[in-house]
């Protein structure tokens, strides 16, 4: 600081206005002054160089430096990159004769969390991937991670399916035998607010994932979530996989339908083994707060009105509610029965398996019955407002024909709505207690 003083003193003495800086009349004094000025300037420049070098060094050594963005962005741990890789490898190590290693996208989502746990518990290697997006309460996603996934040893990479570099890195690190692709922008009504999120995750992200999987030397088989919403405005019930799906009633449904077409193209060209599962209104503990059974419960607990939709001419709205455990069993069977992909990153060696399968409960229940069941379980009288169903994505009825699922997957749903809702309500009351729940 003392060494700096003369320089600072000199700088302080430089007039702020350049026009006022004139040499003195005496030439000796002038030469001496100029000499002092040059020496001081050189010292000053040296000190500035040292100062700037220190700042640059601190910047590059800092953990938040832009030279190491991945560490912050993609992991759920704050330790170094080698730890990150070690944890992923550990999570991906199978301990059963099946030797399955599954990448689960959307792993902290409702179905993803349950499926990851089931896979890990039976001995499959599992790595989760999720961008923890804020479509609904992110604390619920984090709670699924800390309550369901962490205790089972499922490592979740925080990242987006649109991040090709990240996906390639994961595929270089781990030899995945299967991908259970559940990451998507779900929900039909949100498309009125944020249509692009559906394109970004359900189309761009899906293609990005397929591109990486297609290029893997030993391509994994893919099981992915389509939706019953592809049946759109169809009125023939039950919905069968052979029915036309040309009338989507929402952008969400349109992106899932597009996903099925895209999946077919990758299967045809690149030999990827692909199974698309059309889920029907999945519900249960740790469920999705944007779904009717969930926000009806929340509103009823908070003495708020619930809107009950009815179709044209007071038609009943009904859903083929499918309990989470049944859907998870269907996912696991789809993984187990998936045949190997036939490509090798360049050329397919033969036809690969392509399946589209309904996973429903095959017994639709009216929304009125759903509310009556919740009233009994919550011991609360619902304040109902019956309104005409708006034309923003919902359809009056869903009903799955599950004969193909029975045949291909040995699938047999075993939980009725009353039993499943009882488990949901128990979880809901445990999780939220007396506190008011929120979903955004
Ligand atoms: N729950 C149902 O009733 C139902 C019905 C039909 C189809 N589906 C489909 O099943 C799948 C899982 O549904 P869910 O109910 O568990 O939904 P969810 O929203 O709880 O789970 C989806 C997860 O994917 C993640 N995600 C979204 N976009 C991503 C991206 N670009 N990159 C990485 N992660 C991303 C989200 O953060 C979320 O955790 C979805 O594909 C959904 O469309 C669900």
UniProtKB/TrEMBL annotation:
Chief localisation class: Golgi
Membrane topology, as annotated: Multi-pass membrane protein
Q: Which Pfam families match?
A: Epimerase (PF01370)
Q: Where in the cell is it found?
A: Golgi apparatus, Golgi stack membrane
Every NAD-dependent epimerase/dehydratase domain range:
102-340
Which keywords does the record carry?
A: Isomerase, Membrane, NAD, Transmembrane, Transmembrane helix
Q: Which family does it belong to?
A: Belongs to the NAD(P)-dependent epimerase/dehydratase family.
InterPro entries per record: Epimerase_deHydtase (IPR001509), NAD(P)-bd_dom_sf (IPR036291)
Query: Under which EC number(s) is this enzyme classified?
Result: 5.1.3.6
Identification of the protein by name: UDP-glucuronate 4-epimerase
GO function term, MF aspect, one: UDP-glucuronate 4-epimerase activity
Could you tell me which Gene3D superfamilies the record lists for this protein?
A: NAD(P)-binding Rossmann-like Domain (3.40.50.720)
Q: Look up and give the organism this protein is from.
A: Mikania micrantha
Quaternary structure per UniProt?
Homodimer.
